[in-house]
Write a structure and sequence with these properties.
The chain has 212 residues and is of the alpha+beta class. Helix content is 19%, strand content 31%.
């Protein structure tokens, strides 16, 4: 009788067994939640083409991307919410790049405007929508001596919103019209250079984001 009592099997009501069972169940639940969080995705907007400050943002400029929820949170612009109207981006966003929520702003808050510039000459092939360009102004010769002032850089790293090459006003196969986003601080110089007394040209700036 003494031996049978000493080695009787434990009961499920034993506190240690209950604690062990609870720990196992908790571990299973925690693993399930971790796996669910790792595989959960959410829908956010990505750019279908290069997005440039000053251009009105529309659904045609965007595509839906499925991304991991754990890596996103509120960081990117949700594709499940209505797209804000009358908005643009604060900086150039490359094609296929996710659109950060912080990069979207009402058009009125942008510190600059898009300006069309006619270039009477060839434009580097690397210059395209989304590229960054430096804008230079060369005053035309004036006076009897025909001397001209040195060219002056009037805009640095301006995003290109649109480019049309082969503008007819400069002859067949020559010239281009470039729409660039000009910061407010440089608008006066650019508008002054567009009065016809200067020849404008552009050069590609480092960090350009060309459209694929």
């Amino acid at each position: 009788m003494e031996l049978s009592r000493r080695f009787r099997p434990p009961r499920w009501t034993d506190a240690r067994l209950l604690v062990g069972a609870v720990l196992v169940v908790a571990a299973i639940i925690a693993t399930y939640l971790l796996v669910s969080a790792a595989t959960a995705t959410t829908r956010v907007w990505a750019s279908a083409a290069a997005l440039v400050p000053g251009q009105t943002l529309s659904a045609d400029d965007l595509v839906v991307a499925e991304v991991n929820l754990a890596d996103v949170g509120e960081k990117y612009l949700s594709a499940d919410a209505p797209l804000p109207r009358g908005t643009s981006v604060r900086t150039v966003i490359a094609p296929g790049e996710l659109v950060p929520a912080s990069a979207v702003a009402p058009m009125a808050e942008l510190e600059g405007r898009i300006v069309a510039i006619d270039i009477p000459g060839s434009v580097p092939s690397v210059v395209d929508t989304g590229s960054l360009v430096d804008v230079w102004a060369q005053p035309e010769a004036s006076g009897l001596d025909g001397q001209t002032a040195d060219p002056e850089q009037i805009v640095s790293a301006a995003p290109v919103a649109h480019i049309s090459r082969d503008v007819g006003s400069f002859g067949v196969g020559d010239g281009a019209r470039i729409e660039v986003f000009v910061p407010a601080a440089a608008l006066a110089k650019v508008l002054a250079a567009l009065d016809g007394t200067s020849v404008l040209s552009v050069v590609g700036a480092p960090g350009s984001v060309a459209e694929d």
